[in-house]
Structures are given as C-alpha cells and as structure tokens.
Specification:
Number of helices of chain A: 7
Number of strands of chain B: 0
Largest sheet of chain B: none
Oligomer: heterodimer
Helix content of chain A: over 70%
Number of strands of chain A: 0
Strand content of chain B: under 5%
Largest sheet of chain A: none
Radius of gyration of chain B: 39 Å
Order of helices and strands of chain A: HHHHHHH
Structural class of chain B: mainly alpha
Order of helices and strands of chain B: HH
Shape of chain B: rod-shaped
Number of helices of chain B: 2
Shape of chain A: globular
Structural class of chain A: mainly alpha
Distance between the termini of chain B: 120 Å
Chain lengths: 177, 91
C-alpha cells in the first residue's frame, strides 16, 4: 500500500477541496478557511486512513463534513445574533439577504444563479450534497455515491428528491418576488 | 401571474450550475503547516498543565494525609493521657 504524505495529498487535491467548499459556503474566505481545516484534519487522521477507499474519496468526505459543520456553526451564530436583536427591538427578524461571493459565477448568469443557489442552500443537507456533487462538481453517480457512502441507486433517488424539493423552493421564491 | 417551472425548466435551471467555473486556488500549505505546529504546541502546553495539576493534587493529598495522621495521633494521645494519669494515681 502506498503511504501518502500531507504535501502530496495537498498538491493533488487542494483545488477540488477549495472548489467543493466554495459550492457549499459561496464565500471565498470561508472556503479558504474550510480548505485549511480539511488538511489539518487530513494530517491528524492520516495514520487512521486504511486505504480501503481512494484518498480523494476520503478527502472529499472530510470536506463535505467540514463545510456542513461550518454552515451549522454559522447558522447557530446568526440565530444567536438575531435572538439578541429581537430581545432588544421586540420584533421578528426579516430574512437576512445572503451575500454570495463566488468568483466562479459569471456576470451574465449571476442573478439566475444567485436565486438558484439560495434555493439550494435551503435543501436538506444530504439532498444538497447530492446536487452539488452531481451538478456542480460534475461527478459520476458512482463517484458521488462512493463519497456519500450510498449505493448508486440510493443516490439517484436522493437526487430526484432534491430536484423535486428544489422545484417547490423555486416556485415559492417566485411567488415572493 | 408567475410561471410555474416545468420539468424542462428545472433541467434548464440545473444546467446553469454547470456554468459555474472552477476557481484557481493559491498555495495555502505554509499556513496549514503553521496551524499544525500551533496545534502541536497547544497540545504540549495542555499536557504540561495536566501533569502540573496532577502533581499538585498528589502533593496536596500527601500533605493532607500527613496532617490527618498527625491529627489522629494527637487524638489517640489525648485518649491515652487520662488513662495514664489514672494509672499514676492508682500507683
């Protein structure tokens, strides 16, 4: 079995880790923070990596978990902030407009993609991951299924549910416009 | 009235996702190595702190045990003294 060094794994995977994190958080600084966190975790867990799956699959799994943890923490912080605001002003908070900073989005598609990404951000975590891996990362069903530790059939069904849910969310967002 | 997206519209919407371009990423390995080193130092510092706390606890326990045995000896002596005095008067 070939033993990988941190440097070697970094050179091979840092671009994909960064871009995958960027798809989740849509903020360059946050994606950079997640990328660094991922490789610190890779360094810590390198001795436990059995080589049963490919190193890439293992690293992308760590990336997804780190990005989702990051988003959960961000949501909790935001909730705590709003609770403080509400306790002062005694009124319900309005939905905060999310600011997207994704340099991979071209200007001509910016508005449509922002609307789409806002809806994707509201999907349940597993559905969101299926959509990101298949549509944004362009992975095959087999690759995405390996990363999410699902059978290809289960992933396909998760993806169909994601699309159905996304359709509802997009309809709702159009109604609010 | 707003148009409800059909199945084809959904595919078109998702097709937009494929237009998101990959973003180049600079080399952040030096920062990662720094963070790993900093973490190692933090772990060593906390290990020293735990060891020092354990040593302090052991010493405290030792001092307490010595005090307790001194107190017990004093109590036993106090118990014995009247008996000794009684013996002396008997003689």
């Amino acid at each position: 079995m070939h033993h990988h060094s941190l440097e070697e794994l970094y050179q091979l995977h840092h671009e994909r880790v960064f871009n995958l994190a960027l798809h989740y958080v849509q903020q360059v600084e946050d994606a950079e923070e997640i990328t660094q966190d991922v490789f610190v975790k890779v360094h810590e867990k390198l001795h436990t990596f059995q080589g049963l799956s490919e190193a890439g699959t293992w690293i992308y799994r760590i990336t997804i978990n780190t990005a989702l943890d990051y988003l959960r923490a961000r949501k909790a912080n935001k909730r705590a902030f709003w609770l403080r605001v509400v306790s002062i002003h005694e009124k319900k908070p309005e939905q905060e407009a999310q600011t997207l900073n994704h340099p991979g989005i071209q200007l001509e598609h910016k508005e449509a993609l922002q609307r789409l990404l806002r809806a994707i951000n509201k999907l349940p975590e597993r559905q969101r991951s299926a959509l990101i891996l298949l549509k944004m990362e362009g992975l095959s069903t087999e690759e995405a299924a390996r990363i999410m530790e699902l059978t290809p059939k289960a992933l396909e069904s998760l993806f169909q549910r994601a699309k159905a849910q996304l359709k509802i969310l997009l309809e709702q967002s159009k109604e609010h416009e | 009235m707003n148009k409800i997206p059909s199945k084809q519209d959904m595919e078109d919407e998702l097709y937009l996702l494929e237009h998101i371009q990959r973003v180049p990423h600079g080399n952040s390995l030096p920062q990662i190595l720094k963070r790993i080193e900093a973490r190692k130092e933090r772990v060593s510092a906390s290990q020293i702190l735990v060891a020092a706390s354990l040593l302090f606890l052991l010493l405290s326990a030792d001092v307490l045990a010595a005090r307790m045995s001194k107190k017990t000896a004093q109590q036993q002596l106090n118990n014995l003294l009247p008996q000794t005095e009684m013996l002396m008067y008997d003689e």
